[in-house]
């Protein structure tokens, strides 16, 4: 009864503070949603990539978790059809028990030994061969649903009399010119004493979808040499003719993917190995022929990496959630502190007082768990539609399942929730009513040893992590691997540590900076301004937590927006740099293994005027670009690379060239080539290492094709740091005049074409345009680069989709909770000062003057927080965006990763939050000042 009484009391307490209880439920549900969403989404992404890898390797839609066993009969260990059925059921049972997942589909194929396909006696004049080939006879469970009869009778499982009905796969029928209705004899290939079996071709079939899950082998499954029969015919006519009724058996099992959790990958692999050993022991020549063990290892590793990265990005959000829980818990504990004091004074023990708080926390958390799980699953699905930061597009939904939920994380959330709820109640539960009143009359200390220690530890950790990240150069999140010895896990937390520590320090700075505001207020003629400055200067500590929450939310939102914006821009810049233009073409390779320009005019290369390319619909501009292997020789030093022969008048119209690629714009570099026909542009690092200056003559050995090489002497006319298509692995690029190189070789050199397409063309349209260009030159050119198509594929990568989606959701959830926390703090602070406002009204101030005084105070705090928060986000972006990349490139990126600030979103975020908070605070004040003054003074309130 005692616990039932406590439970009833807890329910009544929650009902009496229904608004705070609802906020606690929201915070707990958000925490649960975050810890549910991340592993579920990471698991879904990993499983989808696992499917794509399997499909790419096998050119099929093989399920991500399917295994295949085989067995073959021997003289000592024969096999029958009933044995195959027994082993099928036994393997399914062992797989389900060992792996822990239900088997969704079971396929069994039974085949005979090889038979010679012989013409019947009356048909002997048609064929000159003794045997028309050899083949096996087989049946497979459920095959009728996955084949299409091209000609002949429908496939069925009914028994037939002599001659036995056979169905032949289309490719075998076409190869041997088999016709429906023809009769043949099956002779034993190993024992000629066995009388042949007369058979009839009942139909010709083909797979409905060869890439489907049913066809677990991607080749024609040896079906071009296998004769399909029904199971009754096999048991009646084929099995009795063999010493063992079965020669080979295949069992194929597909697990239920909806119950799969890649975090259990090691368990799955160990279970499969265990069943494989048992199959080897029990089955004749039994083996597990195929299992996704390698894919499971990769999937588990990929999920762990994505989960770690996503949690690293969500550290600020989790901090906001915990602060929100702490703020609500503190307000709730403060409102209940007098109640605790009365209970303690009347003999209640601390355990009893804390038990009621514990029950409160448990009730709220239990109610929040289903809400959080539902929200987390919905968010995981939503992340699959992400395209960019706060940008979602319709696409094929991501398959998520609740088996991926990590209940350990939910248990950790419960522990944290209880800790945050019990912490303020612990100190309140040990005070009597006298101690409570005494403490309420005193101001808390502005500084405390615990706060100073926390700030010091966070500052040291932030400085260390940034230093390590700066020394490393950059961190690629998509390709990050925890097992790499050079990867420090603390580096993932470096941005989060900065955005947790800097607002904490600045919120303390705010408390110190607002003290002189009191002096400023003395010189103001406005009563409202004076009162606002006076209250802010004296009680700036009240705004410590609101300022921290605002700084954290605004700075992290600006950083997230800048990180996503920089990643989007750099992705485009990177692909533009790698490809060079929208579409690039090189001469079609004709027998030459490597060199793209190893063809002469007599090879039949079709060359048309550049204006003809530009006349093709969709082409905005075109330019010839020759690409040849080259080596620059200067004394004993050599620099290998490629020579690009460009048309200086057209190249700038098609190529993508960023301002930081060289000290001069591309147009100026092309003008330098115009001044000197034999001019050449070379990389600045090559010029520096070889002591070459502008105006020097250099010799470049050019390989035009395998049979033709020639040294070319050129004049250095300019330098660059980066040039389109000059990748680190390809060393150097030298840029010369296309006309000059053609003149040196008599105009016989083939060259490629770079094209700039009309704006708005997507990947599919660009691919069609590339085909049109190839047809125009009779396939003499082949497309080597398609920028729109490549960008579309990159933007659809699931790792990138997940990161942008996670940034969007983290920002939205963080902004919502921060706003609620600020409103809660503002509402509580305003309510606590109700007596002060009533006194001011009693002294003669109007309600409007009181509202304006408070709004001045609030506006000063809000102005500081918004300005500093936006500035902090910009500083964080400048510091960390170049070092933390949403890409798979390891090391220093090429081209350089530029930190770009998304000013439009930053301004929108600042204006939205400022306007919403000012409006909400104004509503609070209007409601408060409308209260009856003398009622407030009579009831009293404690500040």
SSE layout:
Blueprint: H1 2-16, H2 18-58, E1 66-72, H3 81-99, E2 103-119, E3 134-140, E4 147-152, E5 164-169, H4 170-176, E6 183-188, E7 197-207, E8 226-228, H5 231-238, E9 248-255, H6 265-282, E10 287-290, H7 293-313, H8 315-345, H9 350-383, E11 386-388, E12 391-392, H10 407-428, H11 433-440, H12 449-472, E13 475-476, H13 489-492, H14 494-513, H15 517-522, H16 527-538, H17 544-579, E14 583-587, H18 610-614, E15 619-634, E16 637-646, H19 651-654, H20 666-675, E17 679-683, H21 684-690, E18 697-705, E19 708-720, E20 732-737, H22 738-744, E21 752-757, H23 763-776, E22 781-786, H24 787-795, H25 798-832, H26 834-842, H27 847-880, E23 884-885, H28 903-929, H29 933-939
Parallel strand pairs: 3-8, 5-7, 13-23, 16-20, 17-19
Antiparallel strand pairs: 1-9, 1-10, 2-3, 2-6, 2-9, 4-7, 5-8, 6-7, 11-12, 14-21, 14-22, 15-16, 15-18, 15-21, 17-20, 18-19
Helix pairs in contact: 1-9, 2-7, 2-8, 2-9, 2-10, 2-25, 3-6, 6-7, 8-10, 8-11, 8-25, 9-10, 12-14, 14-17, 14-27, 16-27, 17-24, 17-25, 17-27, 17-28, 23-24, 25-28, 26-29, 27-28
Write out key terms for the chains shown:
alpha+beta; single chain; 29 helices; six-stranded mixed β-barrel; 52% helix; 943 residues
Summarize, please.
The chain is of the alpha+beta class and 943 residues long. The strands form four sheets. The protein has a six-stranded mixed barrel with strand order 2-3-8-5-7-6.
Walk me through the structure:
The structure is a single chain. The chain has 943 residues and is an alpha+beta fold. Among the domains are: 65-291, no CATH class; 497-579 and 791-943, no CATH class; 583-760, no CATH class. It contains 29 helices and 23 strands. The strands form 4 sheets. It has a 6-stranded mixed β-barrel. A 6-stranded mixed β-barrel has the order 15-16-20-17-19-18. Strand 18 and strand 19 (708-720) form a beta hairpin. The radius of gyration is 38 Å and the shape is flat.
